[in-house]
Amino acid sequence: MTGPAWAQDAGDAPPPEQGAVDMPYGEAEFLNSCVACHGDDGRGAGPIAGDLLKPPTDLTLLTRGNDGAFPYYRVFAVIDGRYLVSGHGDREMPVWGRQFIEEDARMFGAQGGEMITTERIHELTSYIQSLQR
């Protein structure tokens, strides 16, 4: 036998639970972390959007507002907290990078947690890129 044990026994795995949805990680992270403000379509009309001091950004227009190029690293930096938009006052959007790294460090240790957090933010950023219109 070669390869990981989980791969060898894949045929013996139980079927997924009824109702379970298989979706890309970035989409799942978006639904978990972003929908409340940005809405499920990313246009900024989430269920709590009206309660915020500043309307959430329409995430589907980021490419259009950046001369046709998706601002991948700026979006990544906004999510992880390194990029703040001046003139917007206090930051209402949570710094997800901090929250992610705390969760991931508890599960995977400090170094492993940082690597997992970086991947989570890349997946989320790629999903937001897929929403562009």
With helices defined by DSSP (H or I, 4 residues minimum), what is the helix count?
Answer: 5
Radius of gyration: 18 Å
Q: Topology as H/E string? A: HHHHH
Q: Can you count the beta strands?
A: 0
Can you give the mean pLDDT? 84
GO molecular function: electron transfer activity; heme binding; metal ion binding
Pfam families: Cytochrom_C
Protein name: Cytochrome C
Keywords: Heme, Iron, Metal-binding
Quick recap:
Keywords: Heme, Iron, Metal-binding. It contains 5 helices and no strands. By secondary structure, it is mainly alpha-helical.
Structural write-up:
There is one protein chain. By secondary structure, the protein is mainly α. It has one domain. The protein is built from five helices and no strands. The model has no long low-confidence stretch (mean pLDDT 84).
Give the tags.
133 residues, globular, Cyt_c-like_dom_sf
Give me the secondary-structure topology:
Elements: H1 5-8, H2 25-33, H3 35-38, H4 72-80, H5 96-130
InterPro entries: Cyt_c-like_dom (IPR009056), Cyt_c-like_dom_sf (IPR036909)
Keywords: Heme, Iron, Metal-binding
Region (Disordered): 1-21
